[in-house]
Design goal:
- The chain has 305 residues and is an alpha/beta fold.
- The chain folds into 2 domains: 163 residues, NAD(P)-binding Rossmann-like Domain (Rossmann fold, 3-Layer(aba) Sandwich); 122 residues, Orthogonal Bundle (N-(1-d-carboxylethyl)-l-norvaline Dehydrogenase, domain 2).
- It is 39% helix and 20% strand.
- It is built from 10 helices and 10 strands.
- Strands 1, 2, 3, 4, 5, 6, 7, 8, 9 and 10 form a 10-stranded mixed sheet that branches.
- The chain binds NADP nicotinamide-adenine-dinucleotide phosphate (NAP).
- The site of NADP nicotinamide-adenine-dinucleotide phosphate has 28 residues, from helix 1 and strand 8.
- NADP nicotinamide-adenine-dinucleotide phosphate binds next to helix 1 and strand 8.
- It catalyses: (R)-pantoate + NADP(+) = 2-dehydropantoate + NADPH + H(+).
């Protein structure tokens, strides 16, 4: 460990969706002491990946009053649910606890900090991993085992925590660019699939590719005003990547829309629009997407009866 004294163990994972369930399984498999902190209780965590199906013997807790301070707290709720995790933070975060916010979007640490004890170390993490919760406690991994964290002592300790797992942890000095590059993709693939109710194959449609490119051009201007270093090549590479992905691939926002759950749009496209406003940059396409996603969030046709 970076400070030479702590043991990598005592990990609390807040959120038992695709990401939280999969990370809990990966850490338990290499002997970490994992507690899964859930909102909706269930009995068993079962993870399916390339190596098969496995029941993961982690502790599953639904009552924040039933846990004490952990060495590590991994926040894997959707971005809009970060504040709602505050009761968990009150129990889990003590002196020496490191908090890692593993979410899409930007400003992960800033989002959590107002809900944490003053001075608690909090690290943002970007995850590259396609994983789906198919039922409560049932997690299906489709591919990808990479995370990026800011370079530094906490980032090094986080990499050590995941040693022995399939996860490759990159420690990055220019984390702003990493986060915005992921958002460049998420601000396009998520709302476009969710709003069209189409899988990734929708990007084979030339008009949708053109829309995607227009959205990305706006995001790049905003990202670079925020200090990231994105180029047209990033956009071209991401759009080309969509056409090489399995045609039946989707996005977490598509799955959330199909299930009538709230969408993460305010922290993806909404983050682009908010930053654009700060810099006086016009982003009409992203504004239109934000309005449509806002109207669709958590709604099905039944909502209009
Ligand atoms: N899934 C992917 O492939 C993927 C890939 C890259 C990045 N990401 C990002 O990773 C983050 C997590 O995504 P996800 O797909 O894992 O989301 P998810 O499947 O919707 O899971 C989120 C989990 O958080 C739980 N939660 C919400 N509030 C809570 C609270 N107060 N206490 C305890 N648990 C709480 C939810 O509980 P309920 O069971 O009650 O709903 C749910 O189990 C998002 O920012 C997403 O954009 C996801």
């Amino acid at each position: 460990m970076a400070d030479g004294t702590r043991q990598a163990g005592g990990v609390a994972v807040i959120g038992s969706g695709g990401i939280g369930g999969y990370l809990a399984g990966a850490l338990e498999r290499v002997g970490r002491d994992v507690t899964l902190c859930v909102r909706t209780p269930f009995d068993r965590l079962v993870v399916t990946d390339a190596s098969g199906e496995r029941e993961v013997p982690v502790r599953i807790v639904a009552d924040p009053g039933a846990v004490g301070p952990a060495d590590w707290v991994l926040v894997t709720t959707k971005a809009q649910d970060t504040a709602g995790a505050e009761p968990w933070f009150r129990s889990l975060v003590g002196p020496g606890t490191r908090v890692v916010v593993i979410q899409n979007g930007v400003g992960q640490a800033e989002r959590a900090r107002p809900h944490l004890p003053a001075g608690a170390p909090v690290l943002p993490a970007i995850i590259y991993c396609s994983v789906e919760r198919t039922a409560p406690g049932r997690i299906a991994h489709h591919g990808g085992t990479r995370m990026t964290v800011p370079a530094g002592a906490d980032g090094a300790a986080f990499a050590e925590l995941f040693s022995g797992t399939p996860f490759e942890i990159t420690q990055e000095a220019d984390f702003v660019t990493v986060a915005w590059r992921k958002l460049l993709s998420n601000a396009v693939v998520n709302p476009v699939t969710a709003l069209t109710l189409r899988r990734i194959v929708v990007f084979n449609d030339p008009a949708i590719r053109e829309l995607g490119r227009g959205l990305m051009d706006e995001v790049i201007r905003v990202a670079n005003a925020e200090g990231a270093r994105l180029t047209d090549e990033d956009a071209a590479r991401i759009l080309d990547g969509y056409t090489r992905m399995p045609a039946d691939g989707g996005s977490s926002m598509l799955y959330d829309r199909l299930a009538g759950r709230p969408l993460e749009h305010a922290h993806l496209t909404g983050a682009v629009v908010a930053a654009a406003e700060r810099h006086g940059i016009a982003v009409p396409l992203n504004r239109a997407i934000l309005a449509l996603a806002g109207a669709a969030s958590g709604q099905g046709l039944a909502g209009d009866r």
